[in-house]
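Work Package 4 report. The design task specified in the project plan requires that, given a folded chain encoded as structure tokens, an amino acid be chosen for each position. We show below one input record used in the internal validation round.
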């Protein structure tokens, strides 16, 4: 989408410059006005392409079955204690990345029966 905005801005700017250059031949005032309007449109399109859209924030809530107790999560590889920043969710699966040893693995919940 940004590429299309930049491309449209460049085309509008080029056509605006052509109108301003052609204003020296004849019909000076209408061509100057059209050239200025096109250059303004080009600047606006480039501004829109450069601006960032609204930020999207996704929150995952997990509903656990049964009673749960808080346990300290430790790395399977090096045994370091992990915090919440080490947990990520990718495509519905929970992954843990140890900040100490760099090991990444999928966290699996054991059945409760």
């Amino acid at each position: 989408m940004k590429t299309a905005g930049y491309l449209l801005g460049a085309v509008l700017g080029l056509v605006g410059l052509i109108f301003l250059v052609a204003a020296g031949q004849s019909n000076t005032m209408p061509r100057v006005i059209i050239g200025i309007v096109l250059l303004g449109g080009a600047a606006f399109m480039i501004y829109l392409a450069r601006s960032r859209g609204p930020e999207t924030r996704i929150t995952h809530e997990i509903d656990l079955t049964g009673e749960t107790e808080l346990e300290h999560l430790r790395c399977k590889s090096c045994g370091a204690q992990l915090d919440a920043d080490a947990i990520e969710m990718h495509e519905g699966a929970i992954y843990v990345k140890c900040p100490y040893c760099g090991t990444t693995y999928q966290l699996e919940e054991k059945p409760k029966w």
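The CA atoms of residues 17 and 35 lie 6 Å apart. Validation will be extended to a larger panel in the next phase.
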